[in-house]
Write a structure and sequence with these properties.
Mean pLDDT: 80
Shape: globular
Helix content: 40-55%
Structural class: alpha/beta
Strand order of the largest sheet: 3-2-1-4
Strand content: 5-15%
Low-confidence stretches: 133-139
Number of helices: 5
Length: 139
């Protein structure tokens, strides 16, 4: 049984890097943190790492280009926690063929940026709709 007094946070792309860091800090702040990741092995490993730090962390299979995983994650979170208080849409993509960011040329960066900002927009919108009534706002 989960502590219903704790806020529940979902961080997408949380199996490494910035996403894992965000998940860690939210858990340190006392939240139940759900680590969304495409790769179950990496997601479970990241959640186990945080649990090893005595943090309340759980893996959630989530691939933002697959709406079925978004809907399944939303249903699972609703069943287990009855709510989602915080959603951090951190997931991004990079083309491994471009090499490390420090070596990528401007065209590679532009291509990746278009994929991240425009290509992910429908999936971010779906994620927001699946996890609550809040709609993304563009200012």
């Amino acid at each position: 049984m989960h502590d219903s007094s704790k806020k529940v946070a979902l961080v997408t792309g949380a199996n490494k890097g910035i996403g894992l860091g965000i998940a860690r800090e939210l858990a340190k702040a006392g939240m139940i943190v759900l680590l969304g990741a495409r790769d179950a092995g990496l997601g479970e490993e990241a959640a186990a790492k945080l649990r090893g730090e005595n943090l309340d962390a759980h893996f959630v299979h989530l691939d933002l280009v697959r709406p079925d995983t978004i809907k399944a994650a939303a249903a699972s979170i609703e069943a287990q926690f009855q709510r989602l208080d915080v959603l951090v849409n951190n997931a991004g993509i990079a083309d491994q063929a471009d090499g490390p960011p420090s070596a990528a040329d401007l065209n590679s960066v532009k291509r990746s940026w278009r994929r991240i900002s425009l290509g992910r927009w429908p999936s971010h919108r779906q994620c927001c709709r699946s996890f609550g009534e809040h709609r993304p706002r563009v200012s």
